[in-house]
Amino acid sequence: MAGIYIHVPYCKQACHYCNFYFSTSLRSKNDFISALLKEISLQATYLSGEKIDTIYFGGGTPSLLSGQEVQQVLDHLRTTFPVSATAEVTLEANPDDLVPAKLEELKLAGINRLSIGIQSFFEEDLLWMNRAHTASQSVACIENAQKAGFYNLTIDLIYGTPGLSDANWEANVRHAIAMNIPHLSCYALTVEPRTALDHFVKAKSVRDVDPEQQARQFLLLMDWMADAGYEHYEISNFAKPGWRSKHNSSYWQGKKYLGLGPSAHSFNGESRQWNASNNTMYIQMLEKGHLPYEKEVLSPVNRLNEYIMTSLRTMEGLDIDHVTSFFSTEAAEKILQLSQTFINAANMKREGNRLQLTRKGKLLADGIAAELFF
Fold first, then answer.
1. Could you give the domains of the chain?
2. pTM exceeds cut of 0.85
């Protein structure tokens, strides 16, 4: 099974912290849809005929597309690729877009899962982030989605922002749990280069993030979600049993996926490629029948390091038998040897032939993975 990702590069306004590729001008949207349909046709053989189990509209803000545009894209995908009849089809959405009429459009178009960018249920947080929606819309859109029959929901929440108290962070999480949302993605605020937030921090007009606050709020989050019966199945993701994101799980499991749209990445098991992060260039190249991507062939070491990074982020952890089978016995032995330091420090544990991060180790996930790299 493989996945397809569609990057929709448009937003109403720029959130201060965001470094994803997007444009706040919608003038090229019609041309983008035409170019996207051409790219789908040109990439028909990329996944070698594997059945498509997940489709994901990301961005940007995919909910800026009309239901008709979403259906047009999905119809073309289904005629070009062998899409499973039970495929998970996710669309990222901003709360202010999810009015009842729009939700009905999306459901009729074939969307069966929504990823909603709530970020916070507090007005002051949304204003600080420069989000386009209000706190009341954060609540209303979830209620509207559930009334429309969207039960497979995930929301994003952000913690570790300057000024976010532990009490308000708990209120955000408790609100999500109380609304019976089966999946949460929770991210520590990061100050990405060349974002508005980066500029504000450098100008000292806003405080920088506090690593101790972020670590504390992450530890609290793990406790609250465990008490509520959610699986902490990936560092930033929590799901009730049976409600994991199939699409994101396929990334962490190293499955193939095709990325469509400006800045989208693809992976076919042997190489990685990425499209131009420029709407005009993307559209113009596809109008001429050319695919706008660069490509990197991954060495065995690249693939092993990627496996180490992604597997350690999941609750199942790193499978030593997998390393032996797909890479080498020597690689497996070296990983076991290097991991002993982290086991001794109680940052990692070994369960059979799997290495898993402990609660404390999850605070250091990227650093631990880097120490195991080849």
1. 2-252 (3.20.20.70), 300-372 (1.10.10)
2. yes
